[in-house]
Amino acid sequence: MGFSKNQTATPNLRYIPLSYSPADSQASALRLILTLNPDWEGPENKIEFVRFTEGITNTLLKIINRKSGLTDEQIDQDAILMRAYGNGTEILIDRERETTSHALLASCGLAPPLLARFKNGLLYRFIRGKPCGHEDLTTPPIYRGVARRLGQWHAVLPSNGASAAPVEDSTISDIEERQEEFEVIQPRCAGPSMWSVLQKWVLALPVSTPEQRARRLGLQKELQWVVEKLDDGNGIGENGLVFSHCDLLCANVIVLPTGDKSTSSDDIAPVNFIDYEYAVPAPAAFDIANHLAEWIGYDCDYNMIPTQSVRRQFLTEYTKSYIQHRGLDASSEDEIVARLFSDVDRFRAIPGLYWGVWALIQAQISQIDFDYASYAELRLGEYWAWKREIDGTRQSSGEDMPLREQRWAQEA
């Protein structure tokens, strides 16, 4: 249930001075793959391209060599994934950090080996398995598998993540040049974190109109408030931070092949995580709450939010894995579960703020046929509903509790 530890977190990754072009997709991808694997050239080879995704974040191609006589499994063993970056993604994603994070994860057996970089992307090994749908995430075998894998991530990876092969974090220097009517936040721990990423995104919001400027100012004030409230260092890990995936939506959870073995409701499905674009140090409670928030899917079906009893089951599996990989005394399990249950509750709406701001930027730059503006309002609405719940304004107004908050408060 993992990868071989044969890739070191080092900057000595092969660089190919070529680019992928969406306008000339197959030819440009073929040049890259033949540069990487020159032995794939010749009449005995049959190179094929399988497109997985294309959009503002990236283009993802699976490249295979369907030589005669090979089984599908043998073909997949040599398959290569090509990730090409979309235009404008530097606003949202630090690509240098993504590469270093991927190499770090590969060195710990938690990601497929990186093979090469090119001008606008990466080449790395393919993972056999099936991406989840959001309803899959709610099934006990899969959510237990996710919990155990996430506990392993948080236990074995250095809390400062990609600093194992340091790259310059430009977040603070970039945003200091753009501060106007407010000062940027100063998280308790210097360097990259989900707090500094969110700050960078707030500063990247459009300000072309008075309404846009007012909204950015309002969101900055909310960011300052939640940092003061939640960035307290009380979570598990070093200084309250662990190296986190920060984007565990359904498509980034891969269920590994299990052969002919049937899976009962008591089993734990073997899973791996992919796509490390947003991986950064964060409170464990944020990474967990962010994953649980993804149970609602892209359509934001709040009936799928896990209840208290389901969250306890998830956190129990997570804690067992965390203790095992951290080498802690098993007698501390109940204490850690209780602590995490409280922490995840405190962080339950921060993913809504995080991805709400992200979606406001995507609404300006993305070419994907998706209503990012409406999605932003839904996700930010999660944050506002949480804040009205904890300050009592919803109850004092006599309004009904929103569905998401109802589900979150429900015991069974």
Automatic annotation (TrEMBL):
PANTHER family: CHOLINE/ETHANOALAMINE KINASE, ETHANOLAMINE KINASE. Pfam families: Choline_kinase. One of its GO terms (cellular component) is cytoplasm. Pathway: Phospholipid metabolism; phosphatidylethanolamine biosynthesis; phosphatidylethanolamine from ethanolamine: step 1/3. Its EC number is 2.7.1.82. One of its GO terms (biological process) is phosphatidylethanolamine biosynthetic process. GO terms for molecular function: ethanolamine kinase activity. This is ethanolamine kinase. Belongs to the choline/ethanolamine kinase family. It comes from Penicillium malachiteum.
